[in-house]
Amino acid sequence: MPPDATVSLASKVYTVSELTASVRRTLENSIGQVSVEGEISNYRMQSSGHQYFTLKDAKAQLACVWFAGRASGQRSVPLSEGMAVQVRGLLTVFDAQGKYQVNVQSVQASGAGLLQARFEALKRRLQEEGLFDRERKRPLPYCPATVALVTSPTGSVVQDMLKVLGRRAPWVRVLVYPVRVQGQSAAGEIAEAVRFLNRESGVTLPKMDVMIVGRGGGSVEDLWSFNEEVVARAIFESAIPVVSAVGHETDFTIADFVADHRAPTPSVAAEMVVPDGAVLERQVGVQGDRIEGLVQGRMAQWGQRLDFLERSALFREPRARLAEAAQRVEVRGEGLSRAVVGALVFLGRRVENLAASVRAHRPDQVLALRRQQIEAVAARLQRVVVAGVGTQAQELERLRQKLVLLSPEGTLDRGYSIALKRDGTVIRSVAEVREGTEIVTRLRDGRVVSVVPHKV
Fold first, then answer.
1. What pTM did the predictor assign?
2. Is the per-residue pLDDT at 207 higher than 90?
3. How far apart are CA 452 and CA 443, in angstroms?
4. Would you say residue 456 lies in a domain?
5. CATH number, position 154
């Protein structure tokens, strides 16, 4: 631009629109068509088909727009975040925002992009080491007492998670560990937060049941801290189950692959780690009703059992029941005696057979050996029989004593008496006697006859 033009511009007062239009004409006329190489960032595809993105390198950024009409002939080059490309287009100014941009006319891919290449390389290496293995991922506790949040202390993300946790599980203790989630030192802070919470859990801090590591959405560069190896290894080494909640549902980071669980958003992560209190309350009510029904049913069952026992023969006719028991004891005693006798007879015959066999084989050595065997068997048999008979005798004596103790005579011996009518029936109630009734009182050593003078 000539020097006099600079003076002319400085001396004139422009409106914003006039100055912007002048700059636009200057760029389009002086520079015009350009070819620029860089890495795509902040890529957006609108429903109209227009594509907006930023072309950047290590030091600068340049806004670009690729209108649908011009891009229709180049559909073979789909654009994506982190892709390295060469674009050709017109350098101009977007009047509404007063910023310069390139109206793209053609795009040529020039590589996978530095960030994308770093991402894929680290992902492959960590996957080969087993950091993504599904077998090592742990389930979340059903009802945690303490939840740790590793995120930025400012912004809507932490507030959204606190609101969800407070609404669903107000009893849960929440500990927020504030970190930077983007920038040069963010990855180190996130990794140290994860290690610190593991180190101090249950020591200087309450025991952590689950940890959410995350942030809100952003560009690839904004989310890059969660793609750093130091963060991935800290999550992998964590003894506390970790939920990764980075960006939006379409954003994936290395932290997502290493964590025990991935949530599409931080709010969903908060819903994942705690149960819904309202649902728990309903479940407790249902279980309480079920337990109450079971207790009532069991009480009714035992009540019926008691009624049955009260009506049973054991309560109504104890003497008859004792007689039946005594009879069973006698039958078992007779059977035992027959069994012992039968065993003795069998063994006696066996001895006789052995003796006959010995007599049939005359050699002295065989005879002496058989004699010793017979004597040993006889001694063993005698011990077994004596022991068996003694045990059975002790059992019979125990049963006899029990029968004596439970019999009416035993009751009389302990100082009790039985009131009988003249015909021998037992008097069970005052209502069965009246004035002048003869009563026979049976005692341990005899009977006493008395007459009821009058009823009290």
1. 0.46
2. yes
3. 18
4. no
5. 3.40.50.261
Residues 268-302 have pLDDT tens digits of 999 999 998 888 878 787 888 788 888 888 888 88
CB-neighbour burial class of residue 197 (10 A; exposed 0-12, middle 13-18, buried 19+)? buried
Partners of residue 90 on adjacent β-strands: 33, 103
Last residue of a domain, one of 111, 141, 165: 111
The percentage of the chain sitting over the pLDDT mark of 70, rounded to a whole number, equals 87
Query: Cα angle at 131 between 227 and 150, to 5 degrees?
Result: 50
Pairing label, strands 99-111, 438-443: unpaired
Amino acid in position 109:
A
- State the DSSP code for 444: T
- Residue 392 to residue 305: CA distance in whole angstroms: 35
Structural domain range at position 423: 414-451
* Cα–Cα distance, 112 to 396 (Å, whole number): 98
Cβ(417)–Cβ(441) below 8 Å: yes
Dump the DSSP string for 279-330: HHHHHHHHHHHHHHHHHHHHHHHHHHHHHHHHHSHHHH-HHHHHHHHHHHHH
Q: With 0-12 CB in 10 A as exposed, 13-18 as middle and 19+ as buried, what is 268?
A: middle
Residue 112: pLDDT band (50, 70, 90) is very low
Contacts of 207 (CB under 8 A, 6+ apart): 145, 146, 201
